[in-house]
Fold this protein.
Amino acid sequence: MADQKSPIGVIDSGVGGLTTLAQLSTLLPGESIIYCGDNHNAPYGNRSGEEIVELTKKMLAYLAERDVKMVAVACNTISSTFDTPGLAGYQDEYGFPVLSIVRAAAEDIVSLRYTRVGVIATAFTIASGCYGKLINELDPKIEVFGEPSEKLAALIEQGDLHSPAIDAEVGKHVTNLMSAHPDVKDIVLGCTHYPIVEGIFKSKAPHVAFLNPAQSQARAVRVQLSDAGLLYHGQHSAVGTLEINTSGDKPVYDTVISELGITRDWTLNQIDFSAPR
């Protein structure tokens, strides 16, 4: 049975969810976190909905074995399956809340009273229309414009965060979106990999506010843990443990953790989430 001392789970198709982990580490420093990144099967955004759900359930099953008290799905592509007919059901199969990063971001966008919002995300996330659907459920007057990328998440996964290829890919998609909708002043970085290179986005459109959904998700985690009576109330100076489990390799985690300024001590385990458990 989960209690206040139980860890929070965070899942992603790779290193992108470290952006949520960074926000959680700042907002809830006493909470212990178990991270799962399925780098071997990334990028999820180029897979079918059925494949995404199958791979996601492998990570959720692993975290169920670890007695987490909540899971933050720090992947927009996975989160977009929550509201796709025939693909939902995570909440009904596990004994803990499973939080969508898309829903958390949509709620923040509505609360901030934006009127026209751009979203740059993976092809699957944009094709699902999840941002527009969730935002318009809450406020049908907000216009949402999507721009898909099939390459950017995979390029970031390679770990060379200053490569010309990343710079060119970001520039292409910012230009595409701004050319089609020049009056958009707020753009959601709709893949958790993208805030890792947020500086490149800002350099392409300095007049635009780029929104990081990881901030919205971390706040949603805190609210839901508090409401459920599961928020950790230990010593204020205590720092929670951080365990990273990945089907990939360590070097890219070293690079991204350093880039995001995550200072917690951490351990890394290499796990094949698809193997029988």
Q: What stands out?
A: The beta strands are 8-12, 33-37, 70-73, 98-100, 116-122, 143-149, 186-189, 209-211, 242-246, 267-270.
